[in-house]
Write a structure and sequence with these properties.
Blueprint (H helix, E strand, L loop, with lengths): L2 E3 L2 E6 L1 H7 L8 E3 L6 H6 L6 H12 L5 H12 L13 E3 L8 E3 L9 H5 L2 H11 L5 E7 L3 H10 L5 E8 L5 H8 L6 E7 L2 H13 L1 H9 L2 E4 L6 H20 L9 E6 L4 H12 L3 E8 L4 H8 L1 E3 L20 H9 L2 H14 L1 E3 L2 H10 E5 L2 H15 L5 H17 L5 E5 L7 H8 L8 H12 L5 H4 L11 E3 L3 H10 L3
Parallel strand pairs: 5-15, 6-7, 6-9, 7-8, 8-16, 10-11, 10-15, 11-14
Antiparallel strand pairs: 1-2, 1-3, 4-5, 12-13
Helix pairs in contact: 1-6, 3-4, 3-11, 4-6, 11-12, 14-15, 17-18, 17-19, 19-20
The structure holds pyridoxal-5'-phosphate (PLP).
């Protein structure tokens, strides 16, 4: 198996190379030369296994240049070091709330309480193994611009990983109090979180400029440093996400909720289209999936695309109570377009259109093919809160805002289609990451309460344990104090790397 760009065939890479490089040279995304067709026996073989063993099986089908032992080591370092909740033996747990119509796949038992841990605990291990395998002697600097969740999950994943350093830029005053504390208290010898005077776009354009600044990159190369990125278009972030769909299915069979071979649907709260695309790969590999429900918030560019075939980012941008889905360019959709058409020239044409005019339209046949698998709907903030309220009232189960969007999407989908297939709601964050919205939704007051008082109150109301990583923020020392102008980000990089030798 090899990896090449969604936009052309100029490059052929091993998976280790694709993971180290992140993005193809022509601006496209790396895709595998084939998707292994494994059928039901592969799913059956998952029964009774630990999450780590399931992960090894899935990874070995795509990362064919890694040895079995290498994958085993990576997986164990990612998931089996005690940084996932001890109670969640399976790491990605399927919960069956009482009297609830849908099982919930909880993906937030990692160290930062968001589903990004599932991939960002593993990606650094895959990267550092890739460096070793490919005999790369350079030090790698991971640069991240974050509006919140990704930054912390990346810091935690890369902390103290040999031969790699990580520098995260976030907008000063532009992240939530919890997100700020999560990053500012970050420990590790190879990490830095720097606030920039500016907004998220300034941080992101600053990072992009650094990546494309040839002179600056040559200067770094002369010092034995190469830049890389950990964002969600990296193949090494996508492939770990395929695992939990298989794992969830096996769990449902083990719990007697479905029989082996029964079809299930998944409803996925979607931003960059990475999580739901991983479910599509699982389906192609043989997991019995009927529909994938793409759940969006008021930034409903994907709902429109999956309904009409036109992707148009020229629209107002809304700040919602589901900030991790406040996104107008869903980068991983490019991979789906490739797999649906097999036509790289056409994908390139659409992506050029997106870059030039902010929009593109696919042909009716492609849309029909996509709609065979994908359904879509979007939920506004009020309905999201009402959903949290109703689910809590009926089942005493607390959804975070993002997961509530996915929950409501299934209700809307069922109403529209009458499809009663067992549908799993994918839950992407702990409710303790969004205390204020969740408390308001369940009808508890928040006035005058700071984040920690809100944590306590949510605990009182719900009885749900506060994740260790979030409760410990009360007493942790602030270690990351750097603040720079957005024009000084290169200097921040240079200064940080001086300290890394
Ligand atoms: C990142 C994120 C999402 C969106 O996932 P994509 O893979 O970008 O579609 C949804 N919910 C939460 C809590 C997230 O952090």
């Amino acid at each position: 198996m090899y990896y090449s760009s969604t936009r052309g065939d100029a490059e052929k890479k091993t998976s280790a190379e694709a993971i180290l490089e992140g993005l193809a040279a022509d601006g496209g995304l790396f895709v595998p030369s084939e998707i292994p067709q494994l059928g039901l026996p592969f799913v059956e073989a998952m029964l009774g296994l630990s999450y780590e063993e399931r992960a090894e099986k899935v990874l070995s089908k795509f990362l064919t240049d890694y040895t079995e032992q290498e994958l085993k080591d990576c997986v164990n370092r990612a998931y089996n070091r005690g940084n996932f909740d001890a109670a969640a033996k399976k790491r990605a747990e399927v919960k069956l709330p009482e009297d609830a119509p849908f099982p919930v796949l909880e993906l937030w038992h990692g160290p930062t309480s968001a589903f990004k841990d599932m991939a960002l605990q593993l990606l650094p291990q895959l990267m550092s193994t890739a460096l070793r395998k490919n005999g790369v002697k350079d030090r790698v600097l991971i640069l991240v611009a974050t509006s919140g969740d990704t930054g912390k999950a990346a810091l935690e994943g890369f902390r103290d990983v040999p031969q790699i350093s990580i520098l995260v830029f976030y907008p000063e005053g532009g992240v939530s109090r919890i997100q700020y504390l999560q990053m500012a208290t970050q420990e590790g010898g190879n990490v830095n979180a720097t606030a920039i005077r500016g907004n998220f776009d300034d941080a992101q354009s600053g990072v992009k400029e650094i990546f494309s600044d040839k002179a600056f990159n040559e200067k770094l190369a002369a010092d034995g440093i190469r830049l890389s990125s950990a964002n969600s278009i990296n193949w090494g972030r996508l492939v770990p996400q395929i695992v939990y769909y298989f794992s969830a299915y096996a769990d449902l069979v083990e719990k007697g909720r479905i029989k082996m071979g029964d079809a299930v649907n998944f409803s996925v709260p979607t931003g960059n289209f990475g999580d739901i695309l991983a479910a599509y790969y699982a389906k192609c590999m043989g997991l019995p999936v009927h529909k994938l429900i793409c759940a969006s918030n008021a930034n409903n560019v994907l709902t429109e695309f999956l309904t009409t075939g036109t992707y148009d980012r020229n629209r107002p941008f809304y700040k919602t109570i589901t900030p991790s889905m406040d996104i107008l360019i869903s980068s991983n959709l490019e991979r789906l377009l490739y797999h649906m058409t097999g036509d790289k020239a056409r994908v390139k044409g659409w992506m050029d259109g997106l870059a030039r005019t902010g929009r593109y339209s696919v042909d009716p046949e492609t849309l029909a093919k996509i709609r065979d698998t994908f359904a879509a709907s979007w939920t506004g903030d009020d309905q999201t809160k009402a959903t949290i309220h109703d689910v809590f009232a009926r089942s005493h189960y607390v959804l975070d805002t993002h997961s509530a969007v996915a929950w409501h999407a299934v209700e809307a989908y069922r109403e529209e289609t009458g499809d009663e297939t067992m549908t799993v709601v994918v839950s992407t964050a702990s409710p303790y990451k969004f205390n204020a919205s969740v408390l308001e939704a369940v009808g508890a007051g928040t006035e005058g309460l700071d984040e920690f008082a809100m944590q306590d109150k949510l605990h009182e109301v719900s009885g749900l344990a506060i994740p260790r990583g979030l409760s410990s923020l009360r007493t942790k020392e602030i270690r990351q104090k750097d603040v720079v102008d957005s024009a000084e980000m290169r200097e921040a990089v240079t200064a940080f790397m001086k300290k890394q030798d």
